[in-house]
Amino acid sequence: MRIGLIGAGAVADLHARAADQLPGTRLTAVCDLEESAAGRVAAPYGAATYTDYRALLAGGSVDAVVVNTPHSLHHRMVVDAAEHGLHVLVEKPMATTLADCDAMAEACARAGVTLVVGHIQHFLPDKRAAQAVIAAGDIGAPVAVHDYRTTDYRPGTRSPWFFSRELAGGGALMNIGAHCLDRTVWLSGSRAVSLTAAIRERFGAPVETDGTLTLTLASGAPAAVSVISDTPRKVDELTVVCERGTVVADPRTGVFVRSQGRTRQVHTPGPSDIQDAFTAQMADFVAAAGGAGSEVSLQHSRHVVELVLAAYASAEAGRPVGLAAASGV
To answer: Would you give per-residue pLDDT tens digits along the chain (329 residues)?
Structure first.
């Protein structure tokens, strides 16, 4: 499969190496508004470069594209790719509105091409190890989830578009919080049915820099998510409390299971964990394009966007927000 990459920033190199590592898959084109950025990513693979994504789509040199651009641009680029008969792996969040999520899914279905949303949490070795423990059932079903992740949303610490509501759709919750909500819902095995949120804009940022969310899952289990900026130490810890044990996943320290008074480690971090995750995600996308289906459903991806938007609505109204019922996770 010939892969085109739209957007040479952020995790572009990880996507490019993923395409290069899979047999039968190669990076053949890279597009970025900055020609030098496109060239930097493309050079190791001899890929063509573009500064207009529409030229890449029409160039005949790709079978699929990875959309790695500011969030609000996902909709138009995915629809355009579908109209050119190309499969699409789009970075999370799927879009910045539910209407755009639906239009993207409908365009790809109409064109007969595959759409997959890049929720990398599903492929990180620590999260997969945690999911395997929960799925085995020895410690019972999840009864509570706590997710705490730090970030840095001070102006100047990341690309300017992250601080544009028009381009990013929000701030720390839309970007980092989407990861937390994704893995919370996935590992709990249950959609959220209500949500209460509080957000803050600090450091003179025009978007939220911090947020705390309390969710009620369809299973009845509670879940708490916190995204906090500029903390004394970096934290990325997900705790899933189950009926007969607890799982704690942290990409920096590993995955630990506590049950019957004893603790065991089921995953030790390795230097290739992040790249391995992107390569596994690319393999999932290629398999989905071949008809196998993706590990991450579009319904789930849409629900993540729904939760972020519900958090904004809750914070503005100062009250809980209920969510529409739907089958599956």
So the answer is: 999 999 999 899 999 999 999 999 999 999 999 999 999 999 999 999 999 999 999 999 999 999 999 999 999 999 999 999 999 999 999 999 999 999 999 999 999 999 999 999 999 999 999 999 999 999 999 999 999 999 999 999 999 999 999 999 999 999 999 999 999 999 999 999 999 999 999 999 999 999 999 999 999 999 999 999 999 999 999 999 999 999 999 999 999 999 999 999 999 999 999 999 999 999 999 999 999 999 999 999 999 999 999 999 999 999 999 997 654 45
Within 10 angstroms of residue 291's Cβ, the number of other Cβ atoms is 7
User: Radius of gyration over alpha carbons of the chain, in Å?
Assistant: 19
Q: Choose among 306, 288, 287, 308: nearest CA to 297.
A: 288
Query: CA angle at residue 12 from 299 to 275, to 5 degrees?
Result: 80
Residue 1 makes CB contacts below 8 A (sequence gap 6+) with 24, 25, 26, 63, 64, 87, 286, 289
The residue written with tokens 């994704």 in the block is 182
Burial of 273 (0-12, 13-18, 19+ CB in 10 A): middle
Residue 260, sorted as left (phi over 0), alpha (psi -120 to 50) or beta, turns out to be left
